[in-house]
C-alpha cells in the first residue's frame, strides 16, 4: 500500500481542485475525492493507471452530484429542509465565468489549462472523442473570454 | 497604439483560470482516514467528516432507553427468527444505556494483548467460552483465546507452517464443525494465498485451495457451506464486480451464478445489487438481494422520501431523508420511518440488528426486541498498537462481535449472537 500512499499524496490536491471546478463547492469536492480514493483503495490491485482512473471517476462523480442536487431541490420545493448547495458568496469574475460553462466544459478546461493534459488524455477522462474535446475547449474559451473581457 | 492579439487574450484568460484554480485553499489530505474508511464497513457517505465524527464520538451514557410507540405493521418473520423486526418499538437514541446494562450476558472484557504481547482482533465466537482471534502481525493461523484465563491455543498445524514465511491471516471463521481461515505468505520465495480448514474437535489442518488476490484483499463472509467475497474488474463501473465462492468441503473456486454486478451486503450470506458506495450515477431506486446458500431472491424498492441509495438486508432497508436524517423502510418501500437523527444504520445479523452511528453515538439496536444500547468508546489516541489495531476492525456490521476500548482503557466485546 506504499504505492497507494504515493498516488494519494501526488494526486489529492489536483483531484480536489478538479472536483471543485466542476461542483463549485469545496466541501462537496472533498467528499467526492475522498470517495474516489476509498474506491481506488478497494480496487487497487486491478487499476493499471490510477491517474486516468481518478480523472474519470472524479469527473463522473462530480457530474452525478449535480444530478442529485436537482433531485434534492425538487424535495426542497415540497418543504423539506434545504440541502447544501454551491455557495455563491464569492463573486470573483473568473469563478462567475467558470460557472457560465457547462460541467463538461469545466472539466475540459481544468484538464487543459491547469493540468496541461493532451486532448487524447482529456478525451479518455471525459469518455468522448478528441475532436469533441477540441470543440469543448473552443467553446469554453470563447465563453470565458466573453465574460472576462466584460470586466 | 498596440492592440492585444487573440492569442494574448486567450493566454490571459487561461492564466486567470489557472490562477483561480491554483489559489483555492484545499483541505489537508488525510490518508489514514481513506484507508480506515476503505477497510471499515462500507457505507455510503453523506457529508464531509461524518464518519470521523461518529468514530470519535465519546458520549456519556445516560439512562436505560425508553420506547416510543409508532403505528406501523409487523412484517413476516424470516430465517427462523420470529419476529425478526418489531417496527413499533423505536428506541429513544438520546437516552440509551451501555451494552453491559442492556445485554449483560453478552458483554465480555478481553485481555489487552495475547500472552506474547501482540495485539489481536476477534474474528468469531464459539459455542463455548473460547473466541477465535487473529493475531496482529505474523501468524499462520488464528488462535482460540479464553478471555477469562488469557490462555491461547493455536489452530494451525505443521501442514500449514512447514515452509511458510511471513504469514498473515486475513480472515477466519467458525463454522458448524470446523475453523476456516485465509492466509497470505511466502513459500519458496513466492507469494502464496491459501485457504485452510481444521475440525473444531482438533486434528490436522487441510489446505482447501490456493486463493486469488481478491480473497485476501477485501471482506470475506460465510454463506452456508462456502466462503464468499467480492472480486472487482479493472474498470471503474459500479457493476464491474462478481461474487466468488469457495466450498468448505473443498473443490474449485467459482463465480456465484448470476452474481455479476452484485456486492456483499452488510448481512453475511446475502449479496445485493446495490453499489455500497456513493453511486456513480443516479441513486438506485430498486434492486435485488440474494441469499447465496439458498438462492432466495428478494426485491426492494426505495421509498420516494429516501433521497440517496438505500441499504437493504433481508427484512428492512436504511437510507437518508433529503434533510440528512436516517430513515428506515420495508423492502417494498412501505412503513417509512424518519428517525429525525443524523447518521446511518446498517442491517446486520440476519437483518434483525441495526448497527451504526446515530446522533453521534455508536448504536446496536435489536429490532426484534426493540432494545438498544450505545457503545461508549475511549477517545481515539494515537500511538498504541493495540488501540489502533482494534480501532480498525471494531465496527464492521458483518462481524459477529463488536469490540471497542472503553473509556477506562479496557478492551470490551459484545457478542451479537447472544443478544436474544
Distance between the termini of chain B: 89 Å
Low-confidence region ranges of chain B? 41-84, 380-394
Shape of chain A: globular
Give helix and strand order of chain A, one letter per element, not per position. Answer: HHHHHHH
- Kindly estimate the percentage of residues of chain A that lie in beta strands according to DSSP: under 5%
Structural class by SSE content of chain A: mainly alpha
Mean pLDDT of chain B: 79
Annotation keywords:
heterodimer; A: 151 residues; mainly alpha; 7 helices; 0% strand; B: 420 residues; mainly beta; 7-stranded antiparallel β-sheet; 4-stranded antiparallel β-sheet; 13% helix; 36% strand
What does this structure look like?
The complex is a heterodimer of chains A (151) and B (420). Chain A has helices at 2-23, 26-42, 50-77, 93-99, 103-114, 119-126, 130-149. The longest helix of chain A is centred in the middle third of the chain and has 28 residues, at 50-77. In chain A, helix 1 runs antiparallel to helix 2, helix 1 packs across helix 3 and helix 2 (26-42) packs across helix 3 (50-77). Chain A has 151 residues and is mainly α. Chain A contains seven helices and no strands. Chain A is 75% helix and 0% strand. The model of chain A is unreliable at 76-91 (pLDDT under 50). Chain B is globular and about 90 Å long. Chain B is built from seven helices and 28 strands. Mean pLDDT of chain B is 79; it is low at 41-84 and 380-394. Chain B has helices at residues 6-22, 31-39, 50-56, 99-102, 158-161, 213-217, 385-393, and strands spanning 67-69, 89-91, 107-110, 120-125, 131-135, 143-145, 152-154, 164-174, 178-187, 190-199, 206-210, 220-223, 226-232, 241-247, 254-255, 263-264, 270-272, 286-291, 297-301, 311-312, 316-320, 325-330, 337-348, 353-358, 361-366, 372-375, 401-405, 411-415. In chain B, a hairpin with a 3-residue loop joins strand 20 (311-312) and strand 21 (316-320). A seven-stranded antiparallel beta sheet of chain B has the order 20-21-22-23-24-25-26. Chain B has a four-stranded antiparallel beta sheet with strand order 4-5-6-7. In chain B, strands 8-9-10-11 form a four-stranded antiparallel beta sheet. Chain B starts with 5 loop residues before the first helix and ends in a 5-residue tail after the last strand. Chain B has 420 residues and is mainly beta. The interface between A and B is large, with 59 and 48 residues.
